[in-house]
Automatic annotation (TrEMBL):
Residues 626-792 form the SSD domain. Belongs to the patched family. This is SSD domain-containing protein. Its main location: membrane. Residues 1358-1371 have a biased composition (Basic and acidic residues).
Length: 1406
């Protein structure tokens, strides 16, 4: 509607045509007059003058008019020729151009806007007939130097059309000040700030502290009568009307870029689509697919159970031939058993020797712990040295100063109400503002008191006091020695007296509103902070944004519910220089803890605070607090191992004999020593350890080591000693029996972890290397030192000595020692039959398959990242600070767009590819940043980038045209030296740095570009002037280097700073970084394709959090690779050591299901995916090997007739050891972790460890036996035949022993008969011959009989020996070392052998 009215007005005024400024006009002034008594010195009135314009003949003045008022000069030359009359002289023009120089920093980027605004002042000041739209309303009478009475115009009315006012404002309303992250109009409108509109803008132009006299704008679209105070007459006024230039003009000299003119915006950046799963109805496609798969599997399981499960299940086959893989598998099994049996026997025979050798190895390696470096630096922990964010951080820190250290306090009021406040604006109109509780005057005074005490704090560094001023950032030094503090109290320059006075005088609300609206205001009220710069309200106020809002162009700052105090501390690349800063921060934290505990302070406020060292201090405190929790956890596991490893005797006097306390402690000690040895080895090598190594690896190695201990000891307990077998041989035989399974699991686990070292994530890399080596060392110690301890313990038990107190000897057992444990009996008699029943097998298959499908459906929804609050103790002050950041802050961390060294900034075309002033490309780098900031919800960029380039141009050209060298930004003394002073007027200055001819379109010529860049970067504002001085904002943003080839100075690395929007979640941080890199990749490609000189230039983004979050950009990829390598290595090792493809596939499937279930478990229990959880997932695979490999190996080596029986046997023998070893050991220790103070312990250790054990045990002891009973590998025919032969030999040995007993009994009977009745001796001899004949046919004569031997004159016929018997003879023909040992041909024939000869062996027949 407004535009329509303006259009109508223009049509009505069209009849005025060129008569809009009538020909009969005159001047109302000419030349500067006296000082305005109402203004500061230097503010001059204009002398009254009612004549016609006077020809301007001052060349410099004409040049200035041509530069700033070219439209007016063109119009007057068309009317008057070269001799143009004007109502201004050179003095008026100099004052006007000085005023224009103040506009350039705000509007210089948009020439259309600047030209439109300047046009009214040019016509206002100099037009020869300006009386048509200007009329004096108040005159000032004074005496000149000669004492004559003179008049000067004191106040004036300026009649102007709505059209000009609105179109001018429209061309300027979007001009953006990147330094302040706000539109320029919010500054040029003075106190109105974000309430600025066309009329308030011009009203402020006419009435502000910088205007030399009062100008009242009168808006109208028709002529009107007005009283002339100069003449005392009434005359007709014609409103000023001139056509304006739109900001999107096609005229390149007037065109404004998109950042300053929305109508110039062409294409917004392409936002990459969010990667979301396609939906099928209300579920995603993965879930839908898995539902279908599960239904198919469930039907297949049920059908198979009904049809196939009761049939042939792959049991033994007497006539089956041995496959090649079975032969190799059995050969490897036999070879490993034989090797470990021999080795263990040697160890058992020399236990002390191997204990000493093991101790020497451990001590040698453990000494390396002295050289161990523990990484606590989060950057070293999370970021690989080769990662791009790490390289970019190193580049940024080495070329610019490191990111500053932040000390921040967020304060919210308690008990203060919202209030409506009335404030008069610049037009005298009362405006209502809603003040939030945080802006209550009393509350602000209380916070001022707190801030004053904080600023006065002194740290203690080695007995020396450290003041804040010694360590804080001082951007305006050396002119200002005040710290950079962003707080609303700095609107009163951090002075409590000024604030109290403002409250007492009743102008508190006015000043608060005006300073919030325009923090750069240098008039009344003065709003700049004590450090000499502005206090930006979005950094000092909080809580004014509603949920989901982002910082907009019209924020409701007055509705703030929190005050924010931010103190910036200087940072250093050399950590040794941070001592003073750390000392002051420590005193600050201590003080704030005292404040938050003081009821007097906290009665009306709530405080959250943090310093840079706060997080690190809390992490250290957390680690110390959880030491006791970890200790109790391990103590419980040790206690369980100690008590459960031995047999429970029914005889009380045997309890301390049959216990295994010493052995258990020895085994656990070896586990811990293996960890120490691993630490020491890498201490020598120089691989730094991490907290993961110290906190996680003991859990892992203890799990694996204890499981092996239980398997070894319980097998030793279940395997009876054979007759004539020594303790050493018994131990060797037991070790040989379990060694293949232990070697398989340890090798698979170690390789799994060593291959995890391929990861470039430091935390995963270090964990993998330390864990792999610790497992290897632990296995070696178990095969040596623990076997030695087991042997010594066996001798102790045999000698009936007490455990631990070996000097005490107990009594012999009256009962035979039980060969099985309670756990074994439960598994054998109750659990295994239950689990392997048909109905349970069906249910287990359905349940476990369903859980895995559900886990796979949930896994893609796992949140990626690490909530920073989880890393803090629950009672940490930092937790509250994190919460307040999310609740009250409105702007996120800064982001720097860095252009690496090598770009040619002196060339205009190269400048156009980067800059954002007029003449730059519409798609320049800075324009791309700004366009991204227009879509903060998608790009996470909330502001445009601060550009030193455009500011440098403004600084160089300041007052050059006016030759105002005394007050110019860049000024030289008589010797041509740059004057770096903070004075508004420096009378040592003799000329400006550059002349008018040195510029082309507002830019210095290429050869002059570098001449004063260093001066710009070191210059501070001159009082209230020269706001474009570069030191505060850009002192660190540009590095000047020397070109080695030319020896000339050139621009090196440089950055442009913007802000992210407020980032609250891990997803926000990840997405913000992802977009920033997406943007800079486009920038790099753009520069390389467009630049004439820099085809290899690189642009990259940097923010302080990038280095921590880069890992999450590829977290799924890294997770897949790490888990794939780990699972693949387990499969490969299993296959290579067993040559059993079926067993390897069963283990692969089971471990994959455990891993999938763990990931689903993470989603169900809100565990995010990050480096910590990835380490735990890799560890879960390693522990899963323990749950699966032993049971599977026992099944594969069993020769029971059916799969069901083999599964039963494997579950009873190894399943019981797995339950008592790894499962029950860990459960007690894990539950203790649930009481840790550290949230990260409770989430990533308690929850995930619990998941590992529960899923591992349930799959290993429930699903795996069922799976093996259904599709496990068939019986190994080689092992079956070996077992049968062994059983046959054993049976024949037993038969031989029985026959020998019978012979001995018979001999005794014969001797008795012979002594009683010698006449019966012959009969006895005949019987003996019969027995001898039978005995000869049995081929069982291991020793000479004790009864008389019959003469051998006639050889006895020898029955034909079958092939099997011949094989036995051949196999045993070489065994002559032990004459007492039975040979194969000494043994009685088997039933099959005798059947082939027609002889029936019926044993002894009395």
């Amino acid at each position: 509607m407004k535009r329509l009215l303006v259009t109508v007005a223009v049509v009505l005024l069209a009849g005025l045509g060129q008569a809009q400024i009538p020909k009969d006009g005159r001047c109302i002034w000419y030349g500067p007059g006296p000082q305005n008594p109402d203004k500061d010195p230097g503010m001059l009135l204009n002398n009254a003058y009612t004549g016609q314009g006077i020809v301007l003949d001052d060349a410099l003045a004409v040049a200035r008019m041509d530069e700033h008022c070219d439209i007016l000069m063109k119009e007057l030359r068309e009317e008057f020729g070269e001799k143009v009359p004007m109502c201004c002289n050179a003095g008026n023009i100099a004052d006007m151009t000085k005023q224009f120089s103040m506009l350039d920093p705000f509007l210089g980027k948009c020439p259309a806007c600047k030209t439109n605004i300047k046009m009214s002042f040019c016509y206002f000041t100099c037009h020869p007939r300006h009386s048509n739209f200007l009329i004096p309303t108040k005159m000032y009478h004074y005496k000149d130097v000669e004492g004559k009475h003179q008049e000067a115009v004191w106040e004036v009315d300026f009649h102007v059309t709505d059209y000009y006012t609105n179109t001018t404002f429209d061309s300027c309303k979007n001009v953006y000040m990147s330094e302040l992250n706000r539109p320029a109009m919010t500054v040029l409108c003075g106190n109105e700030g974000y309430n600025c509109d066309p009329y308030k803008l011009f009203t402020y132009f006419g009435n502000n502290s910088l205007a030399p006299f009062a100008i009242t704008y009168k808006w109208g679209n028709t002529t009107t009568l007005a009283h002339d105070a100069e003449t005392g007459k009434t005359r007709m006024m014609t409103p000023f009307l001139k056509s304006t230039t739109p900001c999107n003009s096609n005229d390149t000299s007037m065109h404004c870029l998109c950042s300053d003119c929305r109508d110039s915006c062409t294409a917004y950046p392409d936002i990459p689509p969010h990667h979301e799963l396609p939906m099928v109805g209300s579920v995603d496609v993965i879930t839908f697919t898995l539902i279908i798969i599960y239904c198919i599997l469930a039907i297949a399981i049920i059908i198979a159970a009904c049809v196939c499960w009761s049939g042939n299940d792959g049991g033994c086959c007497c006539d089956c031939t041995c496959s090649c893989s079975q032969v190799i598998s059995a050969g490897m099994e036999k070879g490993i058993r034989k090797a470990f049996t021999s080795f263990a026997t040697v160890v058992a025979k020399h236990p002390f020797l191997f204990l000493v050798l093991g101790a020497c190895l451990i001590i040698t390696l453990s000494i390396g712990v002295a050289f161990l470096k523990v990484t606590t630096d989060p950057v070293e922990l999370w970021a690989s040295p080769t990662s791009k964010t790490r390289q970019h951080k190193d580049y940024f820190d080495s070329h610019f100063s490191p990111f500053y250290r932040t000390t921040q306090i967020i304060i919210t009021p308690k008990g203060y109400e919202w209030e409506n406040v009335t404030v008069k604006d610049s037009l005298g109109i009362e405006r209502q503002y809603l003040f939030g509780p945080a802006l209550n005057a009393t509350f602000v005074q209380r916070v001022m008191k707190l801030q004053t005490e904080i600023l006065a704090l002194k740290g203690d560094l080695n007995g020396q006091p450290v003041n804040l001023t010694e360590v804080c950032e001082k951007p305006m030094a050396p002119q200002y020695d005040h710290c950079l503090i962003q707080s609303v109290m700095n609107y009163w320059q951090n002075d409590p007296e000024k604030l109290n006075k403002s409250v007492e005088q009743g102008d508190y609300s006015n000043k608060m509103v005006e300073c919030i609206s325009n923090p750069t205001n240098i008039a009344d009220p003065y709003c700049l902070g004590s450090y000499g710069g502005p206090v930006l309200p979005y950094t000092a106020l909080g809580g004014y944004l509603k949920e989901g809002e982002v910082l907009s162009l019209e924020p409701r700052y007055t509705e703030s519910t929190a005050l924010i105090i931010t103190i910036l501390i200087s940072n250093h690349l050399e950590k040794d220089l941070l001592g003073p800063a750390m000392a002051w921060e420590k005193r600050f934290i201590d003080f704030m803890k005292e404040v938050t505990a003081d009821e007097e302070w906290m009665v009306d406020m709530d405080i959250a605070f943090n310093a840079e060292r706060g997080i690190e201090d809390e992490l250290k405190r957390e680690s110390q607090n959880d030491v006791s929790t970890i200790f109790i956890s391990y103590l419980i596991m040790f206690a369980y191992i100690t008590l459960s490893l031995g047999n429970v005797s029914s005889e009380c006097n045997r309890l301390l004999i049959e216990s295994k306390i010493f052995l258990a402690l020895g085994g656990v000690t070896l586990v811990l020593l293996s960890i120490g040895a691993s630490l020491g080895f890498y201490g020598y090598v120089g691989v730094p350890a991490t907290l993961f190594v110290i906190e996680v690896i003991p859990f892992l190695v203890l799990a694996v080591g204890v499981d092996n201990i239980f398997i070894l000891v319980q097998t030793w307990q279940r395997e009876p000693r054979k007759e004539g077998e020594s303790v050493e041989e018994h131990v060797g035989r037991v070790v040989g029996k379990v060694a293949p399974s232990m070697l398989l699991s340890t090798t698979a686990e170690a390789l799994c972890f060593f291959l995890g070292g391929l990861s470039d994530m430091p935390a995963v890399y270090a964990f993998a290397l330390y864990a792999g080596l610790a497992l290897v060392i632990d296995f070696l110690l178990q095969m040596t030192c623990f076997v030695a301890l087991l042997t010594l313990d066996a001798h102790r038990v045999e000698d009936n000595r007490w455990d631990v107190l070996c000097c005490i000897k107990g009594s012999k057992s009256s009962k035979q020692m039980k060969e099985s444990t309670i756990c074994y009996d439960i598994f054998d008699h109750f659990y295994a039959p239950l689990i392997l029943s048909d109905i349970m097998r069906v249910l287990i298959c359905l349940v476990f398959t369903g859980v895995t499908c559900a886990a796979l459906a949930s896994a893609p929804h796992i949140e990626i990242g690490l909530d920073q609050s989880l890393s803090m103790p629950e009672d940490s002050f930092v937790l509250k600070y994190f919460k307040y950041i999310n609740d009250y802050l409105s702007v996120g961390p800064p982001v720097y767009f860095v252009i690496k060294e090598g770009y040619n900034f002196t060339d205009w075309d190269e400048q156009n590819l980067v800059c954002e002033v007029y003449g730059c490309n519409d798609d320049s780098l800075l324009q791309q940043v700004f366009l991204s900031s227009l879509m903060p919800d998608d790009t996470y960029i909330a502001s445009g980038a601060m550009s030193w380039l455009g500011t440098y141009f403004s600084w160089l050209s300041d007052n050059v045209a006016a030759n105002g060298y005394t007050f110019a930004c860049c000024r030289l003394d008589a010797d041509g030296n740059f004057i770096n002073s903070s004075l508004g007027f420096d009378f040592n200055a003799k000329e400006t740095c550059l002349k008018v001819d040195d510029f082309v379109d507002g830019r210095p010529k290429p050869e002059l570009f570098m001449k004063h860049l260093g001066d710009f970067l070191s210059d501070n504002p001159h009082g209230t002037s020269c706001s474009s001085a570069g030191h505060p904002a850009y002192g660190q943003a540009v590095k000047i280097v020397t070109d080695n080839s030319t020896g000339k100075e050139m621009v090196g690395a440089t950055y442009y700073m913007a802000y992210h929007k407020i980032l609250k979640t891990s997803d926000d941080f990840i997405s913000a970084m992802d977009w920033a890199y997406h943007l800079t990749d486009d920038m790099t490609a753009y520069l390389r394709s467009q630049s004439k000189y820099s085809s290899d230039i690189e642009v990259f983004p940097y923010s302080i959090f990038y280095v921590y979050y880069e890992q999450y950009l590829t977290m799924w990829q890294d997770t897949g690779i790490s888990l794939g390598i780990s699972i693949g290595s387990v499969f490969a090792v299993t296959l290579l050591l067993t040559f059993d493809l079926t067993s390897s596939l069963v283990i692969l499937a089971t471990i994959s299901m455990i891993t999938a279930d763990m990931m689903g478990f993470m989603y169900w229990w809100n565990i995010s995916l990050n480096a910590v959880s990835l380490v735990n997932l890799v560890m879960a695979i390693g522990i899963s090997v323990e749950f699966c490999s032993h049971v599977t190996h026992a099944f594969a080596t069993s020769v029971k007739p059916t799969r069901l029986e083999r599964a039963h046997e494997a579950l009873a023998t190894m399943g019981s050891s797995v339950l008592s070893g790894i499962t029950l050991t860990k459960i007690g220790g894990i539950f203790v972790l649930g009481f840790a103070q550290s949230q990260i312990f409770r989430v990533f250790y308690f929850r995930m460890y619990l998941g590992m054990v529960l899923f591992g045990a349930s799959h290993g002891l429930m699903f795996l036996p069922v799976l093996l009973s259904l599709c496990g590998p068939p019986v190994n025919q080689v092992l079956l035949k070996q077992k049968r032969r062994k059983d046959e030999v054993t049976a024949l040995e037993m038969q031989l022993k029985e026959t020998q007993k019978q012979n001995i009994a018979l001999q005794r009977q014969l001797n008795a008969q012979m002594s009683v009745n010698s006449s019966q001796q012959q009969e006895a001899r005949v019987s003996n011959v019969t027995i001898q004949h039978i005995y000869h046919h049995q081929s069982c004569t291991p020793q000479q009989p004790v009864y008389p031997v019959l003469p051998q004159s006639q050889p006895q016929p020898e029955a034909h020996k079958p092939q099997i018997q011949q094989e036995k003879e051949a196999a045993t023909s070489h065994n002559t070392s032990d004459p007492s040992a039975p040979k194969m041909d000494d043994l009685p024939p088997t039933f099959e052998e005798l059947s082939q000869t027609g002889v029936i062996n019926r044993g002894y027949q009395p």
